[in-house]
Amino acid sequence: MTKKILVLPGDGIGPEIVAEATKLLEVLRREHGLVAEFEEAPVGGAGYDAAGHPLPEDTLRLAKAADAVLLGAVGGPRYDTLDWELRPERGLLGLRSELNLFANLRPAILYPQLASASALKPEIVGGLDIMILRELTGGAYFGKPRGIRTRDDGVREGFNTIIYDEGEIERIVRSGFEIAMKRGRRLCSVDKANVLEVSQLWREVAIRVSEDFPDVELSHMYVDNAAMQLVRAPKQFDVIVTENMFGDILSDAAAMLTGSIGMLPSASLDADGKGMYEPIHGSAPDIAGQGVANPLATLLSVSMMLRYSLDEGALADRVDAAVSRVLDQGLRTPDIWTEGSSKVGTTAMGDAVVAALGE
């Protein structure tokens, strides 16, 4: 059966890096047996420019009909003066909510070829392989009531609500256990149960769900300690599961352990395996159009898409191996360049990975 892939280039460097991903997909289809069709649509700032809204109705319709969505990035300073509901980021949040993409998978893997590019010593990060599982449709980012109001004394205050019910907690924690079963069988649930009632419920549910997974070692850690431990001894972790805002912060911190945020893909999945795939680095408007953006996180997002939504594990392995071969060749975009390696641009890096597919 032909799979439908919706491609959303978005803003900033999004079109540049997605172009390399589309090139990769075309070669996989033409030469390696991928049975898929692609369609492109605007989202984020591009959606606002095209239809007056960051998530145009046609884009949402195509996303709901697709088997998988590949996103570049959204956002840029030219949209900062728009009303909150029209900001590019609302398009991304809208997709997550409308598609019920509750599980965000963010691997933090240090390729041995990039050990010297990490901000930490090689002996601390060498061999790093962590999976951070972030709940994506609840918490402070979606909770209500929210807003900005003026008190009786004339002082303005902003307020947001962190809210999770037992069902929301159970499905993300259960996903964490299932992923841990396929890895090192260690799951660390990160919360702030010493301060927040919502975290106390989170911890209670995690302990209850753990009874269904006796082969997985469950541990708990406060989020502030988890941030410290990611820098102090990151290899102690196998799978981390946490709520939306904590996961947003911890996964970006983990990105720098790997040498560059430009190396990290992500997958956002629903209960049936349909997903949206994107690099975690954002739109990087300061380098947009310069041809220097690192496309590897996007190409590795394609690998995750092949593995989790398209049931093409062998092709995913092929893409992963191609990326590793290119790094072995010493090719580096500016964000991961070190003395002695060869500095290349976005297109040249994409071309190299495509060429390495057949090796």
Automatic annotation (TrEMBL):
InterPro entries: IsoCit/isopropylmalate_DH_CS, IsoPropMal-DH-like_dom, Isopropylmalate_DH
The protein's name: 3-isopropylmalate dehydrogenase
Pathway(s): Amino-acid biosynthesis; L-leucine biosynthesis; L-leucine from 3-methyl-2-oxobutanoate: step 3/4
Primary gene name: leuB
Native organism taxonomy: Bacteria, Pseudomonadati, Pseudomonadota, Gammaproteobacteria, Chromatiales
Keywords from the UniProt entry: Amino-acid biosynthesis, Branched-chain amino acid biosynthesis, Cytoplasm, Leucine biosynthesis, Magnesium, Manganese, Metal-binding, NAD, Oxidoreductase
Main location: cytoplasm
EC identifiers of the protein: 1.1.1.85
Keyword Magnesium found: yes
Cofactor(s) essential for the protein: Mn(2+); Mg(2+)
UniProt enzyme class: oxidoreductase
Binding site residues for NAD(+): 76-89, 282-294
Catalytic activity: (2R,3S)-3-isopropylmalate + NAD(+) = 4-methyl-2-oxopentanoate + CO2 + NADH
Presence of the UniProt keyword Glycosyltransferase in the record: no
Gene Ontology MF terms in the entry: 3-isopropylmalate dehydrogenase activity; magnesium ion binding; NAD binding
Domain Isopropylmalate dehydrogenase-like: from-to ranges: 4-353
